[in-house]
């Protein structure tokens, strides 16, 4: 992975470039990295703030021979890879909040955006966008994010080498991806659960169809979140914003 790297100074969004490259037929493992994004995208059509030289903004193109329903597992795998890399490079202890946020000291440090193109029940390409706040100072975040977002350097008290972080993420990713393709999701699920903060806690899940409250029981083999409400009914949540504790 990452043997072919497109390194850009300034782009609208690395996701957009990766989609075009995937469409043009580039091989699995192609990576797009940018120093700055002028319209970085987050989940649920939100903007992702990506100022120059401060973060890791990148998109990885995968072409797994899998049905589209398996794509969410790759998001969870990515979260494990980034968490392991952050641990190794900085010594910090990140937590994963389902499905794809990585928090340090309860503040969001990393976001993952997985987008897929599929045809006839087969994945054509999966684009995994990773946004990592690395060297921003608090003043470099918009005011409204001060209480909910952070960067590695804020938490660590010193700057972090972004190239080393990217390299370590790719190594961890490659290792987990091989494991996943050989043995399936189970070993990844165990690792993911060891970093997850929401499991076993009371959560509020805001989905497009409404809000659910209850206890997070765990995730299924497919990476779907199981929430047990106060009537002990288990709900399967594919996509939501999660708030922990109430
Ligand atoms: C989230 O909402 O938590 C996901 C954020 C994903 C941001 C990354 S930065 C690199 C890639 N390019 C984008 O425009 N978005 C993703």
Question: How would you describe what is shown here?
Answer:
With 246 residues, the chain is an alpha+beta fold. The protein has two domains: 5-195, 2-Layer Sandwich (BirA Bifunctional Protein, domain 2), CATH 3.30.930; 202-244, Roll (SH3 type barrels). It has helices at residues 14-23, 71-90, 152-156, 162-183, 186-195, and strands at residues 5-11, 31-37, 40-41, 47-48, 55-62, 95-97, 101-104, 107-119, 122-133, 202-207, 210-219, 225-228, 234-237, 241-244. The strands form three sheets. Strands 1-2-5-9-8-7-6 form a seven-stranded mixed β-sheet, sandwiched between helices. A five-stranded antiparallel β-sheet has the order 13-12-11-10-14, with no helix packed on it. A two-stranded antiparallel sheet has the order 3-4. Helix 1 (14-23) links the parallel strand 1 and strand 2 (31-37). The longest helix is centred in the C-terminal third of the chain and has 22 residues, at 162-183. The N and C termini lie far apart (41 Å). Bound molecules: biotin. Biotin (BTN) is lined by residues 13-15, 37, 40-43, 46, 48, 50, 57-59, 101, 111-113, 129-131.
């Amino acid at each position: 992975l990452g043997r072919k790297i497109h390194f850009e100074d300034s782009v609208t969004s690395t996701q957009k470039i990766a989609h075009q490259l995937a469409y043009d037929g580039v091989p699995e493992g192609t990576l797009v990295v940018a120093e700055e994004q002028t319209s970085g995208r987050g989940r649920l059509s939100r903007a992702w703030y990506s100022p120059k030289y401060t973060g890791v903004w990148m998109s990885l193109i995968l072409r797994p021979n899998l049905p589209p329903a398996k794509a969410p597992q790759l998001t969870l795998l990515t979260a494990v890879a980034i968490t392991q890399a952050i641990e190794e490079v900085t010594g910090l202890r990140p937590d994963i909040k389902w499905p794809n946020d990585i928090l340090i000291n309860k503040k969001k440090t990393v976001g993952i955006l997985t987008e897929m193109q599929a045809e006839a029940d087969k994945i054509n390409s999966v684009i995994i966008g990773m946004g990592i706040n690395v060297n921003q100072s608090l003043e470099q975040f918009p005011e409204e994010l001060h209480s909910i977002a952070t960067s590695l350097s804020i938490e660590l008290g010193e700057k972090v080498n972004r190239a080393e972080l990217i390299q370590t993420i790719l190594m961890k990713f490659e290792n987990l991806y091989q494991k996943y393709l050989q043995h399936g999701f189970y070993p990844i699920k165990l690792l993911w659960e060891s970093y997850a903060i929401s499991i076993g806690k009371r959560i509020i899940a805001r989905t497009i169809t409404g809000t659910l409250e209850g206890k997070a029981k765990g995730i299924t083999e497919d990476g779907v979140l199981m929430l047990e409400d106060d009537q002990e009914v288990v709900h399967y949540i594919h996509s939501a914003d999660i708030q922990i504790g109430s």
